[in-house]
Amino acid sequence: MKIAVLPGDGIGTEIVAEAIRVLDALDLSFEMETALVGGAAYEAHGHPLPEATLKLAKEADAVLFGAVGDWKYDKLDRPLRPEQAILGLRKNLGLFANFRPAICYEQLVGASSLKPELIAGLDILIIRELTGDIYFGQPRGRRTAVDGHFPGAEEAFDTMRYSRPEVERIARVAFEAARKRSKRVTSVDKANVLETFQFWKDIVTEVHKDYPDIELDHMYVDNAAMQLVKAPKKFDVIVTGNMFGDILSDEAAMLTGSIGMLPSASLNSSNQGLYEPSHGSAPDIAGKGVANPLATILSAAMMLRFSLNQAEAADRIESAVKHVLASGLRTGDIWSEGTKRVGTREMGDAVVAAI
Amino acid sequence: MKIAVLPGDGIGTEIVAEAIRVLDALDLSFEMETALVGGAAYEAHGHPLPEATLKLAKEADAVLFGAVGDWKYDKLDRPLRPEQAILGLRKNLGLFANFRPAICYEQLVGASSLKPELIAGLDILIIRELTGDIYFGQPRGRRTAVDGHFPGAEEAFDTMRYSRPEVERIARVAFEAARKRSKRVTSVDKANVLETFQFWKDIVTEVHKDYPDIELDHMYVDNAAMQLVKAPKKFDVIVTGNMFGDILSDEAAMLTGSIGMLPSASLNSSNQGLYEPSHGSAPDIAGKGVANPLATILSAAMMLRFSLNQAEAADRIESAVKHVLASGLRTGDIWSEGTKRVGTREMGDAVVAAI
Ligand SMILES: CC(C)[C@H](C(=O)O)[C@@H](O)C(=O)O
Ligand SMILES: CC(C)[C@H](C(=O)O)[C@@H](O)C(=O)O
Predict the structure, then answer these.
(1) What residue ranges of chain A have pLDDT lower than 50?
(2) If 0-12 CB within 10 Å is exposed, 13-18 middle and 19+ buried, where does residue B174 land?
(3) Contact list, A138 vs chain B (CB under 8 Å)
């Protein structure tokens, strides 16, 4: 088994280092190989996703990813910007199924913007389609408008699209995931406006016939954005497209108040996967040793479970994290009165010790 | 001056009736004419936006709109569903500028999901472009995929697009609005992924040169969805496209906890406008006399200010609403211990009395 380790930019290197120490502590046998990605790769090789990095990722069973991006790359042409690396990895590895849990840990209820009774015990799984939709649809670009409100004016455009097999496979992923949970799926669309999402809704409804044990409901994306704020605990599994999933998964993550704790997994049809924290590269605190490594450590646990067939080792990491939280250690992002503030390294140490 | 009154479906008729009583109480001289829209129009005339209704709306200086929609129309073909009426009105009247205030009234802080300190005093203005983007872009439909992940498969697609003049005019609306407020605009885009929104960002930046007194920043839509939850009061004016605006304006409205209080205005370039509450038709409570009419009454105030040049009358309505809230009257949606629960009619009575 081989893991491609892509720490990336900002706090990426610091948090991935802790995840690796945790993996090492498990005494399993797999190979790890590190490569540059994002801004770091651009600086060294002139491209955010160099050929060698992509090759390594493709050959590995799993990719452990830190974070990419920094304001200093904002002025680069789009194809050279750090975030293109992540889009390129998703596309080239066919990582169509993004798992974004939004969990509120008991000890961290107070970190949420929401009133405790609304957020305590939250455990949502957002399944976002990750290789289709308006992210990759062609054609796109700039041109002269031939119709619309201002024919003759300069315009820019993108294409939203989903094909039947793309919707079918992500729907199956969602129904299968729900089977292992409370057996409820909410499919989020905008079928009242978009052809693409009327099609999405129709297909999810069809696929649902194969899962009579699962309860399915449909919700418009604007309503979902509201219901997440009003009563997040009413959701269990949410399945949606790439664009809506981008927005709703971040909204849900922030509702927990502890985005520094939330892992993610992006899988293809052979269970090869990319694992990364839900948060970003946080250039403002990079290099200071204060970033929370737990989302990355928990991403490594997801990696063990989903791609490396080591569910027991995954359990050990997750228990260790719970133990460390219970012991009162906190990085700055989740610190509160009465708990002990620690840095990235100390938090990693504590998880290693708990394992 | 002429007002087209389109009560629509569900609670629409009840809440619009109270807004009309409030308008009558002001003793101004304008003509009002009522017409069917949405499901009600479909039942009577087989179309959610009959020709006569559209004609009336076009000829009027302003449209006072209730709400449309009911689950029972879910099975109709898309062009016949109630919400097509609202899309048709926006398109045919050219209502490109949607004003969606998200205000948290002092007395209603407790109704929010958020902790009081995060929401008290909230006063955001979301300006959503309303006639462009993926809502109206052509082509759209179903076809056989010629490329993508599954060439040969059935697919559905839509076109996102913005032309230069469309972005310019909504940017100007936002900067002008910010001038009357705290002089800050956040433009929300997804320039890291979409051509349309890189174009949007470029043009907003250009137009900004004409407004050196206004502070402009840019934020990705996923981050905006998070920051609204984390620290909503950091925003003042938000300007964004039709699709992102749909999601973010509803999220922001729900953050206040009192969506039953939030009006909206949709204007064209001659200040003709459509005014409607931010909430929907609530078929579950329709006909029971319990709906909150205040969002509609406040929409009538916006109508007086923006389209009918009666700012003073608008002020009178807004003061009356504040007075009624201060007196402790509440409809069910905003009721809390220690306040007096009233129905739709009594709430209307109280506002009329306060005027
Ligand atoms: C960086 C960006 C392209 C990316 C996305 O929009 O998918 C990010 O927001 C995410 O959710 O992983
Ligand atoms: C009913 C629907 C078409 C509409 C929209 O998406 O614009 C609604 O959600 C709104 O925000 O007014």
Answers:
(1) none
(2) buried
(3) 147-148
